[in-house]
Amino acid sequence: RVQLVESGGGSVQAGGSLKLSCAASGYTYSRNCMGWFRQVPGKEREGVARIYTGDGSTYYADSVRGRFIISRDSIKNTVYLQMNSLKPEDTAMYYCAADRSGGSWGRCGPVKELFDTWGQGTQVTVSS
């Protein structure tokens, strides 16, 4: 069974840090596009960061560039999102996702509809 399981969410004060993890199982991990997205009630789900597991290329939304770092551990089949200098506007449900079909040939774009596997989400709350 293909599965993504997120962990690491929680509550933190502004300026603090959290590290999210996304453990992948049930499929070949070697060449995939893995992404972190976030969503607040009433708004569209937005992309935060992506990583192509084949060569480690990373991509960030402007709102998090310089504060968040996406990384992977190929041995553990896990992707991480280190979130630093958190702001109240970072408060959201964070989802891990994989573009398995496109990732197999190198695609790692920002369009969320191309991501075919999603985790259940983990809540991040940043208080001022």
Detail the topology: elements first, then pairings.
Layout: E1 3-7, E2 10-13, E3 18-25, E4 33-39, E5 46-52, E6 58-60, E7 68-73, E8 78-83, E9 92-99, H1 100-103, E10 117-118, E11 122-127
Parallel strand pairs: 2-11
Antiparallel strand pairs: 1-3, 3-8, 4-5, 4-9, 5-6, 7-8, 9-10, 9-11
Brief digest:
The protein is globular, with a radius of gyration of 14 Å. It has one helix and eleven strands. The strands form two sheets. Strands 2, 4, 5, 6, 9, 10 and 11 form a seven-stranded mixed sheet that branches. A four-stranded antiparallel sheet has the order 1-3-8-7, with no helix packed on it.
Description:
It is a single chain. The chain has one helix spanning 100-103; strands at residues 3-7, 10-13, 18-25, 33-39, 46-52, 58-60, 68-73, 78-83, 92-99, 117-118, 122-127. The strands form 2 sheets. Strands 2, 4, 5, 6, 9, 10 and 11 form a 7-stranded mixed sheet that branches. Strands 1-3-8-7 form a 4-stranded antiparallel sheet, with no helix packed on it. The protein is built from 1 helix and 11 strands, in the order E-E-E-E-E-E-E-E-E-H-E-E. A hairpin with a 4-residue loop joins strand 7 and strand 8 (78-83). The mean pLDDT is 94. It is mostly beta strands and 128 residues long.
Number of strands: 11
| Coarse shape | globular
Name the helicity range.
Answer: under 10%
How many helices does DSSP assign?
1
Q: How large is the share of residues in beta strands?
A: over 45%
Which stretches of 5+ consecutive residues score pLDDT under 50? Answer: none
Alpha carbon gyration radius: 14 Å
Q: What is the succession of H and E elements? A: EEEEEEEEEHEE
Main sheet characteristics: 7 strands, mixed
Average pLDDT across residues?
94
N/C terminus separation = 40 Å
Structural class of the helices, strands and pairings? mainly beta
